[in-house]
Fold:
Amino acid sequence: MERRNKRGRMFLIIGLLLIFVAGGWYVYNIVEDNNAGKSATDLLEKIEKQQTEQDNDEESPVIIVEGDAFCGRLAIEKLDIELPVYDEWNYTRLKTAPCRYTGSIDTNNIIIAAHNYKSHFGNLKQLQIGDEISFVDAYGTQHRYSVKEITTLDGTAVTDMKSGEWDFTLFTCTKGGEQRVTVRCNRIINNK
Structure:
């Protein structure tokens, strides 16, 4: 009987320890998300300020802020997000703001990656066909896109991510990180 009680206490302690670790991980993720949102907002303000101060004769494919290059700003009104976009991606930058994964606005094949933080692309799956996305490039030119497809790809499906005739693609990891929520868009042509 005493042996059973010891085993029961041991399982109880392990269970409580696991709950504590899970709670700590949850709090860590919330703090990381909030920090990323604040950093992105701060960078966005600096990018917007630099774009308005930029001489019209001075055309640059990137905006330099604090030593980092940004290719523009992304806005998704339906998700209430506006974010700067780094010109090149790496994991460190991805913790702050979305990054250009590959392609470009000029060649109509840009792919932008971001973490699934709520302040970044965490709600990407809530978009629907026909929703609009706006991108203001480093020159200050606004490009508008319409969502045409929302799909989930395997995390290792790099070729699938880059394939297709899409003008604009956004993606982020699912909660488990094994798949990618992928939003495919085409440019909205203004009829004047």
